[in-house]
Write a structure and sequence with these properties.
Helix 2 packs across helix 3 and helix 4 packs parallel to helix 8. It contains twelve helices and no strands. The C terminus is likely disordered. By secondary structure, the protein is mostly helical.
């Protein structure tokens, strides 16, 4: 089998898996079903992907590649300030998390796995099938690529004056990323607006982006409320 045919088979299986994971979820999807929908024998499917965990790691790598494109597209446009780049990333990141739920959940799942992986005592809690996946090993190498670009955007912003000069790029970017994850996680609660919480989903995003911009620019200042004098008559 030639390398081109092999690549086509791998892509076919991956595309089918993405469709099934999206429609049914990870746990409800089985490898036999992937093989059937791809019209490939079970044996050949297992030849390309050793098990469902290995296949999910391959899907996760594709998710990280898609995320990286968001950052690359924002930084390659000339004439933009660092803050403008980060603002575009923030908008597109939110859209990505909403429109590509399966990809986004795969990314968050991997970040959770990393918490265990970085602690030798907790690493044994990770499924060995994941640790033995060649795609998991690739993820260990590339998962920080988007962050590197984001950190460069902050550095650019500090240099061009659009971002406060005292901010440390690495800490700043990961703080912004933390905020974006939190924003996505709270979309559900905000959508279920109650009488006691005066917020609406339509103004949540622009308000969030503006607050992020103000924090990075340093335009948030504590102000004492002005006393208002009024006559009772």
């Amino acid at each position: 089998m030639g390398s081109q045919e092999r690549s086509q088979k791998e892509k076919l299986i991956l595309d089918v898996a993405i469709k099934l994971f999206t429609e049914k979820g990870y746990h409800a999807t089985i490898m036999d079903e992937v093989a059937k929908n791809a019209k490939i024998s079970k044996g050949l499917t297992y030849f390309y992907y050793k098990n469902k965990e290995d296949l999910y790691m391959a899907v996760t790598k594709k998710a990280f590649d898609e995320l990286k494109d968001i950052f690359r597209d924002a930084i390659k446009v000339k004439g933009r300030s660092g803050l403008e780049m980060l603002t575009e990333v923030a908008y597109n990141y939110i859209d990505f998390s909403v429109k590509n739920k399966m990809y986004y959940e795969a990314i968050l799942n991997f970040l959770g796995i990393l918490q265990l992986y970085n602690d030798t005592k907790l690493r044994e809690k990770i499924d060995p099938k994941i640790l033995n996946s060649v795609h998991f090993q690739k993820l260990l190498e590339i998962h920080h690529d988007s962050a590197k670009i984001g950190i460069q955007m902050v550095s650019n912003g500090v240099k061009d004056g659009s971002i406060r000069p005292e901010l440390q790029p690495e800490v700043t970017f990961y703080t912004v990323w933390t905020m974006l994850i939190g924003f996505e996680r709270l979309l559900g609660p905000v959508s279920l607006e109650g009488k006691e919480i005066k917020i609406h989903i339509d103004n949540f995003r622009p308000g969030f982006i503006k607050l992020m911009q103000d924090m990075l620019k340093g335009s948030i200042q504590a102000q004492r409320p002005q006393a208002v004098q009024a006559s009772l008559f």
